[in-house]
Amino acid sequence: MSGHSTYNPSNGFTRWLDARLPILRLGHDTAVSYPVPKNLNYWWTFGGVLTFCLGVQIITGIVLAMHYIPQTELAFRSVESIMRDVNYGWLLRYIHANGASMFFIAVYIHMFRGLYYGSYKAPREVLWILGCLIYLLMMATAFFGYVLPWGQMSFWGATVITNLFGAIPLVGESLRTWLWGGFAVGDPTLNRFFSLHYLFPFLIAGVVILHIWALHVTGQNNPAGVEVKNKDQDTVPFTPYATVKDAFGLSLFVILFAYFVFFNPNGLGDVENYVVANALKTPPHIVPEWYLLPFYAILRAVPDKLAGVVLMFGAIAVLFVLPWLDTSKVRSARFRPLYKQFFWIHLAVCLALGWCGAQSPDTILIHVGDGGFTVTHFARILASYYFLHFIVLFPLLGLIEKTKPLPESISASVLGTKN
Amino acid sequence: MAEIHAAEPTRRDFLYVATGAFAAVGAAAAVWPLIDQMNPDASVLALASIEVDISKIPVGQEITIKWRGKPVFIRHRSEDEIKAAESVDVAELRDPQTDDVRLVKGPNGQLEKQWLVLIGICTHLGCVPLAYKGEFNGYFCPCHGSVYDTSGRIRKGPAPLNLEVPPYKFVSDSKILIG
Fold first, then answer.
1. Which of A72, A221, A269, B112 would be a feasible disulfide site paired with B106, CB 3.0-4.6 Å?
2. Binding positions for a ubiquinone (chain A) (predicted)?
């Protein structure tokens, strides 16, 4: 899709450099002349937003690490000192903490966009898998990061998540002790989580490079879901078209980001994490951060410990094989009337699972006699649908669905000859 | 293909296999310290056992102490609690254990039925259960709703096993040694 390079060194120095390290050519081909489908809508601006988020997290994180102390006696206090004593420490920490949430908002929009427009289908399977890998690394990074302030939620979140590995038959116990470096979450655990929290963003950055590389090999998908046929008619150069559109989308996103940082900095957090970790007392209601709630709901919905853990990880693992579960040749949900409906149902189910994850599992939703229909029951139905959607509906819909006629080309779809 | 199939392994093949095997063993040996450094270090393993004075715990109450970084419950059980624990049909339990095997003998050789010592960590995902809560008035885990009885045995909820009994013994009528 990228075609051959149109870079033209303009002076003696750039010509000299181009013959030795064609890095300016790479930049030009990637961010200037790179052809993008001309029908991209604003859902396509989240790649840029995510790059911005990663940059913000790395920069604020490196600065915070200059003040943070990964030691159980001092961790909580050092975070408070960042908030009170360090110049602009409050700003940096609030940006970093809310930045994690913003990162996940953006990645969820990015992923659901891919699901709606079929961006995971051939020839973009590797692109999609790399994206899933980034998502997995993001969750691990966020988890490590959440442990560092050493509040009650940090400690008990770390305890519950590391105990998940204890459910693995035979090696579970020793694996857990190995992760802890002790017999409970403690100093060694905090130290290594800090080390890994620093490492993982750079792993993410590495996979992001592969993700963009793969993207530039296949070219972007687009709302019509048909491939570029004629570069002149169907695409526009990345700069200025995509650059400006991305910049505008990013500006709107940063307004939302700023609202949280400046007006509601703890709105997405849990008050319990402002209580210092206490190994002898579990808070009455422990919940993970909002972006992990749907998976937490799946974990709790299963009455068996091992099965719960397997299904929770399975909910993420299934994403990796989507390109092969979907039998439909048509990418975009615009032309898939049945899939479109199930897409929205699935989105609602994911949101409802998130809601369940935040509730106390025994809360009764519909009273019947003494007991009734609890949050756990509701979560079981939702979790069943989650898997049904991918494992049954994805292969099935492609076989039974009567899709609408596809536009002849991207250009034809933009000109509205047929949509 | 037939020729290759019939060919005897040569000395060169042997050298390839031997070199590969040596390299693999060497790589594993080099990686092992990097993996093993994450296991509990000497200072963690050396955590001593502790002695606890139990004479001041009134009947029907319990204390929580910290041992190896974990909470340990020491519960002075009432007659009712002991009766409730003993009257359970063991066959119906998820992790079948009689109340007796979860207790130890005192200095006089009698089973100390009034003293229950448990590691206060839910066998589901490691939260600390709340005492005197839940259907059996034993323990209730606030995280995912596991319910334990007055012997610390799992009765309801997602936890697979009974609360663990730590190694301990009575050193006198009023003192126990944990660990």
1. B112
2. 216
Among residues A256, A282, A308, the one where a domain terminates is A282
Give the model confidence (pLDDT) of A363-399 as tens digits.
888 888 777 898 989 999 999 999 999 999 999 999 9
Q: In whole angstroms, what is the distance from residue B95 CA to residue A419 CA?
A: 62
pTM: 0.89
pLDDT in tens, A102-133: 999 999 999 999 999 999 999 999 999 999 99
Assigned domain for A81 exists = yes
Question: What's the fold here for domain B45-178?
Answer: Rieske Iron-sulfur Protein (2.102.10)
Cβ pair B124:A305 closer than 8 A: yes
A1-36 residue pLDDT tens: 456 788 999 999 999 999 999 999 999 999 999 999
Give the count of alpha carbons within 13 A of B3, CB side only. Answer: 0
A159 and B120 in contact by Cβ < 8 A?
A: no
Residue keyed to tokens 């590495």: A206
CB-CB under 8 Å, B40 with A286: no
Of A282, A301, A330, which residue is a domain's last? A282
From the list A97, A229, A72, A48, the residue with the least C-alpha distance to A155 is A72
ipTM, interface predicted TM-score of the complex: 0.75
Q: How far is the alpha carbon of A374 from chain B, nearest alpha carbon, in Å?
A: 13
- Give yes or no: B124 in active site: no
**What is the layout of strands, in order, in the sheet containing B70-76?**
B61-67, B70-76, B115-119
Q: Given CA atoms B13, B19, B20, B22 in this order, what sign does their dihedral have?
A: positive
Return d(Cα A223, Cα A347) in angstroms, integer.
18
